[in-house]
Amino acid sequence: MIPKKPFDTYKWRWLSVMPTESLLEPPIFLGVLRALKACEGSSPSDQDVYNALSLVEKETKSRVKLARERDRNLLRNSGQYWKGTGLLLPSSGTIELTLLGHKVAEGGVTQGEFAAIMVQQTTLPNLSTYKDTELKKWRNAGLEIKPLALILQVLETLGEISNPTDVFLTPDELIKVVIPLAGTKMEGAAIAKMLLKIRSGKVSVEGWPDCAPADNDKRLAREFLLFLSNYGICRYIAGKTNAEGRFYLDELFDVDAVSSLTQASIFDGNKEAEDVIEAVRSSPLPSIIERQRTKTTVLSRPGQPKFRKQVLEASEGCCLITGERITEVLEAAHIIPVSSGGTDERDNGICLRIDIHRLFDSGNIRIRPTGELQFSDVVEVSGNYKLLPPEIMLPSFVKTANLEWRVKYW
Fold it and tell me: CA-CA distance, 289 to 235, in Å (whole number)?
């Protein structure tokens, strides 16, 4: 059967109507958030905000202009990226972060935890970014979709019923198959089975509705996949075109358990946001994200052995934070990630015990250029790590500017 649109303008849109994909890249997204926190209480058009965003633009090498003129500042044109993710209050008069915004900006909520919160909380229609006319159409159709969770349900089912090489989704498949079927309220498992039939030629999508008719609609839909890739849930392999790029799920997990953890909403006040944070922390997704990121960005890199040797030699085989000297449990950690332009030079590395390295990479442990250590909420209450020092002496070979970059943008 050919699926039908639930209403004439049905499509998937999460945040801005004018997508700027690179704003969802963690260094830029988090850098802007921390700049806004430093300017909280100011008008978005104030000079201090312009100066702060200029610095983020420069230090992250942003391809997008973040510091804009007073009458078309970043929040006026793209503020939905932070408002629609529950980090910034919708008020247009002054800058004000939510409780979740503060926790993410300060490192109390890690990147992995934030990504898990988005999987659990992102719902279409987005009440923070949709107009009343759009909201009415969704409500009249009795339609509500958790797009990130649905995508992962599709991928998880593919992993259960097909070969590992088939556990991917392309933007073209999202637009032509997943979104039309989601509009009929079809579950993720059934969509995955239909997708396999379409890939094998048993079913044709000819005559199916076009759910991305406007110029930007394909980019709007692709943002969901880019988010999953940017935050380490999916692994991206480029295709000949953006539409053909493949987003792989390398580790399966119970998506339903993540997407239905709590009925609380990050958009309904501080108490509700706290409930969401705690519920997500009890789920497997944050740790899965960190394991996936480790597999795809650190362990598989060809330059890693040489980098490790140089850093461990310069560190005299000693973990910077714990003092551990057993070689088998020591690793070289990049300060600025290679994916964000960091080098394999020893001044961009520190020697850490394996578990401390994982906590450093995930943002649970942060090292300031002064040597002061900052811990996430999870580490703060952990009995295993309560004896970690509040401050350390930085080795002379470490470039403190790299640590400063990491505190701001990672």
Answer: 11
